[in-house]
Structure formats: C-alpha cells, structure tokens
Automatic annotation (TrEMBL):
Pfam families xrefs: WDR55
Protein name: DgyrCDS6414
Native source species: Dimorphilus gyrociliatus
Keywords, ordered alphabetically: Repeat, WD repeat
UniProt similarity note: Belongs to the WD repeat WDR55 family.
C-alpha cells in the first residue's frame, strides 16, 4: 500500500532563506505568496497545510535589495520595488516582467501601496510620494510633503483617500482622484513606521518608533485622539484582522493581537526569537497570518480563533466588507 495522505496541519511549515526577507504578500485568491529579499531576489511560493511548500520561481531583475513585492487585487500581476530606484510589474502566470520603470524615483523606493488593478502608489527614502497608472505606464502625480522616508501607506475602500506615514513623524492624506494633498498632522516626536485602518470605528492606527499605537479620528489629522503604549520597541508593521482587532509586528520579534478601543493586548500570536518583524500578510482564507523577520524565515500562524472574539467568521468578514460600502473615509 502507498503512504497515507499527510495529515493536515493547522499552519504550513516555515520557509527558510539564505538572506534577510524584506517583505511578504499573499495572493488574493490562491495559496501563493511572493517575497522580496535584501539580495534583490523575488521568490514565489505555493504553501500548503498538507504537504511541503513549493518554490515556484525566483526572479533576479533588481540590481539591489528588493524592498516590496505586492499583488494587484485581481491577482493577475504583482509589483516589486527596489533600492535601485526601479519598479517592475510581473505577470503572475508566466513570471515575466511585463514592464519596468527603471528610474521611477530619484531616491530608493521605501514603500508601496496597491490602490486597485491599475493605480499604485510608491514612496521613497526622501519623502516623495508618487501615483502610477499602469495603463498609461507612467506617473500621474508626484508630491513631496515630507522630509523623511515614506514608511507606509493605506488606501480607503472608496479608493479616493491615501494616507501615508513618514519617518519624520507625520501622517499625510492625499486625494488620489484630484491629485493633491488634503491634510497633514503636526510633527510628532517619534518616527511613524506603519499604518492600518480599522473597519468599523472611523479610525486609523499608526505604529511608531517608541512602541506606541497612535489612533487618529477621521478628518482630525492634526493630532491623535488616543494613544496606546505597550510595545517595548518600534512597531514596524500592522494588519487589520477584523473590525477593531489588529496584529502588530514589533522590533522585539513578537507578533501581538491588539484590540483597539478599548485598548488591550489580546495575546502573543507568535514570535521570531527576538528578531525584528519586517512584514505581515493575511492569506486569502484569512485564517492564516504570514510573517517575515531578520531570522531569514517566513512563518505561518493560524489565527482563526481570533475571529471568535468578534463573533463573525472569516467568510462573514468578507461579506461584511463587500456590503458595507461607506466606512472610514466617507464624507472626508
């Protein structure tokens, strides 16, 4: 008789690398993820809870470290950006580079935000933010409102308002339809490093270099409405799980589930043995969280139990997101 089918695990096995992984992003519909590493490589993997993870391809089109690799919402392409100032669009099915923006910024690109299947935003080390139209294959907006690097960005559900955090300690809002800046916060003492929008509370949460979660109300960007200290080191990445529940990636190597308003740390989801967390991503089923760290590993964490705290399961969350159109940035 042949071997029995391998028993399903609650999460895939770790994926090990030979260098530092800078970013990880999961495909919106399939068990596929893409990674960006410090050697400039872009790798694509198929992950599994029943078998071994499979490396599908390795791309070496960047000359310096690849800082971001993100799928478009339809999953047909993904975009990579690099310290070499280039940005590339990759076909997911063929792994071919379909377009290259060789000198997309004057400074190395630091962050990337996918707005929709055609429009993306990029931010660089010197505080310049650009909007790109992939159909026209060119930049349609360029603004420099910050003096330090654009650390992270998030787009609203209407795809109209983009919020960007900067290492100088500001939160800046941009109108992606009218191609102009809306508002900018006052200058905070600590650098702003990460951002995520809550689903139901008309708020965004910003992680800073001192380990504080700074909470902003819709339209009140000049100052915070609340702050939640509690992390021992900088909060380098954030992802919203559901409603007021987020997950934080901290420089101390721990991944925490945090409830916002009331503010409390729910649990330690996982850790990378004191190595800083670089990036977090939810899988398409939303039951798994993927993390990468300075320990040169991709790790998977089963977070399905966290939805019990909010009564709705992941499939209900998807329905909730599709039906509730007017949320955080409405009437801004």
């Amino acid at each position: 008789m042949g071997k029995d089918k391998e028993k399903e695990r609650n999460a895939p096995k770790d994926i090990k690398f030979d260098c530092l992984v800078m970013d990880v992003d999961c495909h919106p519909d399939n068990e596929i993820l893409t990674t960006a590493d410090i050697d400039g490589n872009v790798k694509i993997f198929k992950y599994s809870t029943t078998g071994e993870n499979e490396e599908l391809n390795t791309l070496t089109h960047h000359k310096k470290s690849c800082r971001r690799s993100r799928f478009l919402p339809n999953g047909e392409k993904f975009v990579t950006c690099s310290k070499d100032k280039s940005m590339c669009v990759i076909d997911t099915s063929t792994y071919e580079v379909v377009h290259t923006y060789s000198k997309s910024h004057k400074s190395p690109i630091y962050s990337l935000c996918i707005i929709d299947d055609n429009i993306i935003a990029s931010g660089d080390d010197d505080g310049t933010l650009k909007l790109w139209d992939l159909r026209k294959q060119k930049s349609v907006m360029e603004m420099k409102e910050c003096e330090e690097f654009i650390s992270d960005m998030v787009i609203d559900e209407s795809k109209k308002i983009l919020l960007a955090t900067s290492g100088e300690g500001t939160l800046t809002t941009f109108d992606v339809k009218k191609h102009k800046m809306r508002l900018q916060s006052e200058l905070f003492e600590s650098e702003f490093l990460s951002i995520t929008a809550l689903e139901d509370k008309d708020k965004v949460v910003v992680g800073d270099g001192d380990g504080v979660l700074n909470i902003f109300n819709k339209g009140e960007w000049s100052n915070i409405s609340d702050r939640f200290p509690g992390h021992p080191m900088s909060i380098d990445c954030l992802v919203t799980i559901h409603r007021n529940l987020i997950v934080t990636g901290c420089m101390d190597g721990k991944i925490r589930a945090v409830n916002i308003l009331p503010n409390n740390i729910v649990e330690i989801v996982g850790k990378h043995n004191q190595f800083p967390i670089e990036s977090l991503s939810l899988t398409h089923c939303q039951d798994l969280l993927v993390s990468c760290s300075h320990d040169q590993k991709i790790k998977f964490w089963n977070i399905s139990h966290l939805y019990d705290l909010n009564t709705e399961r992941p499939e209900e969350v998807k329905a909730h997101r599709k039906t509730k159109k007017q949320k955080f940035f409405d009437d801004l």
